[in-house]
What we know:
The chain has helices at residues 4-17, 23-30, 34-46, 76-90, 96-109, 112-123, 143-155, 227-239, 252-255, 283-291, 303-322; strands at residues 51-54, 60-63, 125-127, 157-164, 170-183, 186-193, 198-203, 207-216, 242-248, 264-268, 274-280, 297-301. The protein is of the alpha+beta class.
Amino acid sequence: MWDTSERLLKLLSLLQRQQEWSSNSLAEELGVTARTITRDISRLRSLGYPVTTRKGHGGGYTLQTGAVLPPIMFEAKEAAAVLLALEDYATTAGTSAHARTALEKLQRVMPSRVQAATKALASHTTTIDLGSPIGVDTPDTDVTTLLLLSRCCRDGRQLNCTYRRYSGKSRSRVLEPLHLVRAMGRWYLLAYCTDDQDWAVFRADRITDAKLSPHSAQARQPPATDLDEYVSQAIAKGWQQVTATVRVYAAKAEIQHWISPAWGTVTEESADTCIVEAGADTYDSIARWLLLTKAEQTIITPPELAHSFEHIALQSQRAATSWAPEEEPPNTKPPVKAAT
Length: 340
C-alpha cells in the first residue's frame, strides 16, 4: 500500500511518462480504485499542478505544461544521463556555473541510492580532449553498463563480461576496473584483465553481458602515475591503424594546435618548416585533417597518403564542376512599346 504523499509522487511520475492516462489505467498502475485516482488528481490541482480532464469515451488525464515545475522522478540510469549531459554542458564557455548550480540542485533532491550511483560515476571518470575523429559515427554506450563499471571502480570488484575486439571477435573476460575516461565521443575503461594478466584499455560500448562478480579485485599497482596519459597513449595506438610522415611548410607553433597527441607529433625542422608524424584509422582521415592546416605540404612517406590526397582532390573537382547557376525563368511579360 502507498501512503498518500508517496502515491501522489508516483502519480506525477506516471503523468510525466506519457501524454494521457485513463482513470482505470492509473488505478491499475497504483493498485487503487478509480475513486482514489479522482481524489488524488484533485489534490494535485490544489497544489498547483495543471492536470486537465477529457471526458467521454477515450478520455483521460493530462499533465499540461504550466508555471509550476513538477517533481521529476529519476531512475539511477536517468540521473546518470542527466549528470553526463550537464558535465558536457559545463565544458561550454560561459555555461559552467549554471550547469554546476543545476547539478547541485538535482543532487540535493535525488534519493540516496541514485546519489551514490552518480557520485561513483563522477568520481571515477575523467574527460580528456583528444579532438574528434573525422567521418566516424559516435557509438552509443549503455548507461547501465557505465554505472556498473563505475561501481566496480569504487568498490574494487571484479566484472564478468563479453568484449568485442576491433576485428569483431568476442570472448568472455574477467576484468578489474580501475578508471573511466571520456575522449573523442567515446568511453574507455582502464582495467586489469585476469585472463591476459595485464592492464588494458577497453571501449565501453563493446562491453556486453556485464555482471558484477562476487569476487573482489586484487590490490594492484596502477599501470602509470598519470592514468589519463596512459589511456591517451592506448587510444592513440588503437586509432593509428596507418601512419605517415609529412613536411609542412609552416612554423611548428602554427601547426602544433592542429595535431592532437592522439593523432601524432610535430617536430621543428627549421624556422619555417616542421615534420608531422601522423596516424589515424585511414589515410583519407590523415589527408583531410592535414588539409585543415592550410599550409603547403610534402609527403615523405608512404605513397598511399598521396593516393588519398588525389582521391580528395578528385572529389573536390567533381563537386566544383557540378555546380551551375540556375537558369532564370523565361520572360513571359509582353514587351513594352515605346510611346510615340
